[in-house]
Amino acid sequence: YLYHPRHIMGRHIYYSIKIRKLFSHFQEPFSIIVFSGKTHADVQRNMSSLYTRLMYICMSYEKAMYLCLGEINNDTSANLLYYLGYFIMLCTGAFDDIAWMLNNLYKLQLHRKNISLKGKEFRKKLEQHNKQLFNLIMENAPFYNKISQYYPIRDVLQHRNFLASGTLHGLGETSHYIILDEEAYKKLFDKIKIKSQKQTDEQSTEYSVAPKILLEYLFKELFEIINEIYKTVDWNVYKNELDANSLKSVENTMAKYNKGTGSLWGFHGEPMYL
Questions:
Q1: Where are the beta strands (DSSP E) in the chain?
Q2: pLDDT tens for the 274 residues of the chain, in order
């Protein structure tokens, strides 16, 4: 990846910088938890898992967006569905990472089956520790609906007839389309407005959606959701637990970060394309 006209960087560093730019509330909480050592080792594992998923989300998103603009043929359609499906599964997995992080951070001691941002038992326990986030993820609240909008497609991928694709004129910037059944369509599009149209057969219960538009929307929403959740946590509580040396390490890391995400990796200036 081109960093500056005469410098290149590897894929790992590229995505490390990109994630920190998109996930602006990541670095300080992560540094606090890392330098807490074994005190919050389980939370650190959850954060690291989220970070890994976000890297693969960026990779699958970029690949799917590239394929949206590619030649229309069976190979392109199959690859597009693969990366789009992987992207959706990773997004809902990221929400599970956050739920596990909160369970361990607040010591909710829930059974693993109940650890979900959409779970009633999870929200009930969370209310005692983070009232702001509890209010955000109350069932049918606008923020809760933002999280829920990923699950209709995820349910199709996991439990029902798999997504189909094809080509269609009139769906915007791309002639690719994916087909959603009526149940998934109504659950998704009751909450968001994306250009779509019903299949030409009047008796059909399937709808055509431009994947490029859908991907752009869900990618942007994902990082807004994650940033908003991290903002509700009072990380100073855990920062105040640190000893003097650990606190100094956090401050040094953040001083580099605040100069620009590239400075964390010893680069001069910021990347050209991030």
A1: 2-4, 7-8, 164-167, 176-181, 196-198, 206-209
A2: 666 666 777 888 888 888 988 999 999 999 999 999 889 999 999 999 999 999 999 999 999 999 988 777 778 888 999 999 999 999 999 999 999 999 999 999 999 999 999 999 999 999 999 999 999 998 878 899 889 889 888 888 887 777 777 665 554 444 677 777 777 777 666 555 554 554 445 555 667 777 888 899 899 999 999 999 999 999 999 999 999 999 999 999 999 888 877 667 777 667 666 5
Among 99, 105, 133, residue whose Cα is nearest residue 237: 105
Find all residues with CB under 8 Å of 200, minimum gap 6, and list them: none
pTM of the model: 0.87
SS (H, E, C) 110-178: CCHHHCCCCCHHHHHHHCCCCHHHHHHCCCCCHHHHHHHCCHHHHHHHHHCCCCEEEECCCCCCCCEEE
Name residues whose C-beta falls within 8 Å of residue 273's C-beta, 6 or more positions apart in sequence.
1, 2
Residue 265 contacts by C-beta under 8 Å, 6 or more apart in sequence? Answer: 9, 13, 16, 17
